[in-house]
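Notebook entry, structure prediction.
Reason for the run: the old model in the group folder had no record of what sequence produced it. Starting over properly, with the input documented here first.
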Amino acid sequence: MDARITRTRTAVMEAATELLLEGGPTAITMDGVVARSGVAKSTLYRHWPTRDALVASVFTHIAPELPEPDPSLPFEDALRVLAHAFVDIVADPYWVRLIPAMLLLKADLSEIAQLDAELQKHQSDVLAPVLACGAAEGLLPEGYDTELEATLLIGPILMAALTGSTPLTREFADRCVDHFLAGIGAHARA
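New structure, fully documented this time:
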């Protein structure tokens, strides 16, 4: 990519992200980004023809990626790696401020709904081999639902992040894994 285009994109993303953090999604306006970034309005519209396209691009730019655990790890260890990584992501004050905005916007902007779907798919793709390991170790039943298991594992962490009710620590992540394992153990015994 041309160095000028890279500089332009960087300046726009930084300006739009600052506006988003300061005032929420409605604070991202084309005029506001132009004023904050110093990028010409015509250049901005050439790269992002609509405000919605710019907002979606900002969320895509800042979205964290859940790292894949080492495939040689046993099930429980891989779950802990994932839970720790997710806590690290949502404990970031930068990202936790954006989660509610993204959840609200996905109902109104198809680009945000698509990004949310892509993030969920990535999360499922990262979690699927870990859950397959759990099934291979006999800890998950055959025919388990990846989305349900992801919700049961990560849901409490996301809830704590959104409500601020519980400190987001590695110890909390470990407790979530312990409860998840106890739940699937109880399910397996039933």
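Summary: The chain has a mean pLDDT of 88.
The old model has been moved to the deprecated folder.
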